[in-house]
Amino acid sequence: MDLLKNKILSEGVVLSDNVLKVDKFLNHQIDPELMVEIGKEFHSRFKDTEITKVLTLESSGIAPAVMTALNFNVPAVFARKRKSLTFTDDLLSAQVFSYTKQETNMISVSNQFIQPGDNILIIDDFLANGEAAGALINIVEQAKANVSGIGIVIEKSFQSGAAILKEKNYRVESLARIESLSNHTVTFAGDNE
Amino acid sequence: MDLLKNKILSEGVVLSDNVLKVDKFLNHQIDPELMVEIGKEFHSRFKDTEITKVLTLESSGIAPAVMTALNFNVPAVFARKRKSLTFTDDLLSAQVFSYTKQETNMISVSNQFIQPGDNILIIDDFLANGEAAGALINIVEQAKANVSGIGIVIEKSFQSGAAILKEKNYRVESLARIESLSNHTVTFAGDNE
């Protein structure tokens, strides 16, 4: 997706060989027009698939997930990292380690919102080692729902997540695939568009 | 906003005299079409005002904030509750107590994304005692930017937040104003549409 790649090149900041900062348009400040285009692009890639819900993880996945759900005319659900007084249903939970935050979180979804037979499109902002995606898959499978696909805004292809997910036969569509962040430079992998 | 009020009546759950659970369409599962309409409604209410950025707080404010920012053709920024390895700029921070989570958080925004002279529309999902809105105002004022207005999806008018903000001459627009949650029943206040 050229619009996204150009945005990464113009506004992304390479902090190290494996950390790309995209706080200007995705992770802290959000470019709403870009989110609209990301939603359309995920729809175009998965429109041949049955999708009944979009699932993401708070917080940076919410904007792309909602824009994608809008195109499919289905609800979006975000897994929560923390408890709340209003979070009183039976929960589906899984552990996820965040490299950028250096902590392990238990993420949870109310069992009310993922039902047996649901066809779930998982959306996330980044795919690195596949920790978050793996936890979301775990939750979907606990609910006896199906993972229809996994849509990633930025895949760091030099880390193991994409390969692990594809090996398990999940369909992964990444809008920008980064081959390397070496020398403070973003190098994209061959596009899968 | 009738669409929202009907949604609250049909899908909201009154947990106690001051807690309304709206996990089915706003706080955990998100209705994307409703978010589109909320974005249009905030635009219609604040369109006479100069807005250069929309500011919210993760996580439940993100969807309405992004849809609102889209209508104003400006970026959305969400204050973060936690640190991240990629969160390396100088930060504007303020404390906020969450009643529903029973904890005090330090929320932060990179000083890169709110600049002196910015005209900020603050958007949040709920207004109760005004803790979150107060912390966001504090951050905007630290940055020497202006608060152009405060847009709230659901105001609990029987708590003190709205009155406190209006007393300080902030312009508050709430899309649904709840007068009471007594007897497990939602009673709306007179509409300010």
Automatic annotation (TrEMBL), chains A, B:
EC number: 2.4.2.22
Keyword Glycosyltransferase applies: yes
CDD domains, per the entry: PRTases_typeI
Keyword presence, Nucleus: no
Annotated positions binding xanthine: 20, 27, 156
Enzymatic reactions: XMP + diphosphate = xanthine + 5-phospho-alpha-D-ribose 1-diphosphate
An example Gene Ontology molecular-function term: xanthine phosphoribosyltransferase activity
UniProt-annotated binding residues for 5-phospho-alpha-D-ribose 1-diphosphate: 128-132
Keywords for the protein's UniProt record, in alphabetical order: Cytoplasm, Glycosyltransferase, Purine salvage, Transferase
Subcellular location, record wording: Cytoplasm
Pathway membership: Purine metabolism; XMP biosynthesis via salvage pathway; XMP from xanthine: step 1/1
Record SUPFAM superfamilies: PRTase-like
Role summary: Converts the preformed base xanthine, a product of nucleic acid breakdown, to xanthosine 5'-monophosphate (XMP), so it can be reused for RNA or DNA synthesis.
Subunit composition and interactions: Homodimer.
Family statement drawn from the similarity comment of this UniProt entry: Belongs to the purine/pyrimidine phosphoribosyltransferase family. Xpt subfamily.
Protein name listed in UniProt: Xanthine phosphoribosyltransferase
Annotated source species: Jeotgalicoccus nanhaiensis
Lineage: Bacteria, Bacillati, Bacillota, Bacilli, Bacillales
